Amino acid sequence: MSTAATAHDDHHHHAPTGLKRWLFSTNHKDIGTLYLWFSFAMFMVGGLLAMVIRTELLEPGMQFVDPEFFNQLTTLHGLAMVFGAVMPGFVGLANWMIPLMIGAPDMALPRMNNWSFWILPFAFLILLSSMFMSAFGAGHPSAPNFGWTFYAPLSTEYGPASTDLFILSVHMMGISSIMGAINVIVTVFNLRAPGMTLMKMPLFVWTWLITAFLLIAVMPVLAGAVTMMLTDRHFGTSFFSAAGGGDPVLFQHVFWFFGHPEVYIMILPAFGIVSAIIPTFARKQLFGYASMVYATASIALLSFVVWAHHMFTVGMPLAGTLFFMYMTMLISVPTGVKVFNWVATMWRGSLTFELPMKWAIAFVILFTCGGLSGLMLAITPVDFQYHDTYFVVAHFHYVLVSGAVFTMFAAAYYWLPKWSGVMPNKLLGELHFWSSLISVNLLFFPMHFVGLAGMPRRYADYALQFADYNFWISIGGFWFGLSQLLFLAVCVLCALKKGEKAPAKPWEGAEGLEWEVPSPAPFHTFETPPVVK
Amino acid sequence: MATEKYYVPESSPWPLAASVGLFMTAVGGAHFIQQSTAPDKFQGSWGMPLFFFGLATLWLVIAIWWRDTIKESVGGLHSKQLGISYRQGMLWFIFSEVMFFGAFFGALFYTRWLIVPWLGGAGNNAMTHELLWPSFQAMWPLVKTPDGTVTQAMGAWGLPAINTAILLTSSVTLTIAHHALLQGKRGKLIGFQAVTVVLGAIFLCLQAWEYHHAYEEMGLTLHAGIYGSLFFMLTGFHGVHVTIGTIFLFVTLLRVIKGHFDAENNFAWEAGAWYWHFVDVVWLFLFVVVYWL
Ligand code: HEM
Ligand SMILES: [Cu+2]
Description:
heterodimer; A: mainly alpha; Cytochrome C Oxidase, Chain A; B: mainly alpha; 74% helix; binds protoporphyrin IX containing FE; binds copper (II) ion
């Protein structure tokens, strides 16, 4: 910390204890743990909101919530899941695993690391509390109600008072993400152990490196978007108002310039995790390591030139529409390379199906489903029909829930032995997996059908003909939501060290530096860097 | 690579404290803005004090935090490798700033090349033009908005040109100071860095004067339609960055006087210099696309 600590710093290796350990931490493992629990908490909050949504949609007609509140639910659900559950979850994994994987003593900038984390709870306090607060004397209290994409003018001219709090909380999340990303990049570039060349790095490190680049590139653009919103709302500017010479569509361009790379921010680390797990349980080297690296990089670069596929129906010029259509389709080439490589890795491997592998295989299949519906959406004339229907909702939940979230489960089952020192409970884990796998498909697959049949997203009610499917979707929703309590139980058991003791390397086929330290990983690891051959 | 030990600091209360400061700044800021721009809708006036209190907390905590870091650096705890971490971190931070400005530059080009012509009926927008504002005429700078607000465009060759010269000169003086730092010529370093700080301050005064002129005499305000919006957003955020840069250089000047830097150990100094050059380059773009063309 300061001079007091300086003198004996070198011999100072005990772990701090109590509350101070967590609040003032500069340890990548503790900060990683904080991120992971925070992410899980937001996953529960967002899940709860989704269950209220599904309760309302269980039957046609208006039963439980009024439409105004329904809009707040969808908005906060999306924001909590994207910015609260998925992004911090991957940052937590990065914190825990990157230093272990590259043989670094910690993250490069440990105090900034802790700052990145502690901004988040406050940002979400601001965001979520607006659901409860009266809007400080300004009419009917309302949380943000314009969808997680907060299109102008819904969020500018018509946004509730809490919109301003929302804007400031997005700024905070942005600051947090940018600092976190800088930390990752610097750690990877500067703290690798001797011999750990770039092309020897585990793919999780590679994918996170590229993710961090995307974060630094697009979070500031999001900050620009909300700043323009703020000045349009309060300082008389006309960015998103045609009467003053601006354009509401400008908002969509700025937002999606952030938004599309953002979806890759949420999936690239997932690719890295799967690329670590599949070789372990196939007992084979990853097929096509170098092509995986290049595919990841090209996905990231292409992600900057596809954003308007979210805007096919706003009336862009034909040339623009075609450009974005072809670019989007081009992205499926590197994505296909990845899926091919995972399958080729399993091909003729000595496969076993431990829990992490189960999740990883489920990911490969279900993510591919989501990629295929994405391809359908990328075809402009077809998207005219599908846009803003439940088909889009089905698409992005396949890639995000059975994609990103499933890999986080895979990662947890894979690395929990390293984190906690005990094996995750097998029975609960199996139940969690099968229960989630069946329910997630019950929940999201029928959304394709109602979407194709024209059911619009973000409405509290629907036409009678969609009733049967929606009933089953809701059942799937409750089932999936409740299944996650099993995961909570698994994590709590591990945190309490209840379970079979884990060896340093619990998976026989696993490779990598993280398995060379004991389980649980000691408070400090690799203080003198290992040498990688 | 590394043979000496990488310095991992002991636990520190400042990150959490800074988060609390940021929290108060954000909550206070949102209410400050609401209460001061729409007092009829938002009663109360507690937003402003909370905002400034939060901001003061934030900066105080960061100052203490950096003081710790400086002590570590002066105390010799920082290895060369840590210096590289700081440097790389700063460069990526500047990259994030580039992207932040990029959002507004993007908005400028989109407005200028697409929105305004479309509102005037270009492309397949004849009906848009006919139905919405048939008397609207596309032009840039947009001095008459579709709803009829009239303003004037800010010319390039008065104050803005002088300001360009000032910033360019400041970049030169800073580079001379940099060379002096590397050669260990303290007198020259202090002199030229002081000149740079003064030039930054002059720039800011002139910009304040320009804003005053725009508001009082030209009708060019934030309310004057998209041209005013873009003008003030771009030059305003640039001005904020010049302010930060000037303070940054002023602080490193004090540290130079205290003898903190030498040819090897000079991260903070160089970070400030990089930041200054970045702000300078942004201005050149601004000058060309906002004022001139
Ligand atoms: C093969 C790759 C993919 C393609 C071709 C693709 C294509 C598309 C298209 C065209 C849309 C817009 C649909 C519309 O609004 O009408 C869309 C929406 C979306 N996609 Fe994808 N996508 C792909 C992969 C992904 C991945 C990997 C993720 C995230 C992990 C993702 C997340 C989303 C989200 C969140 C939306 C909806 C945003 C909203 O309107 O709320 N997509 N996708
Ligand atoms: Cu997209």
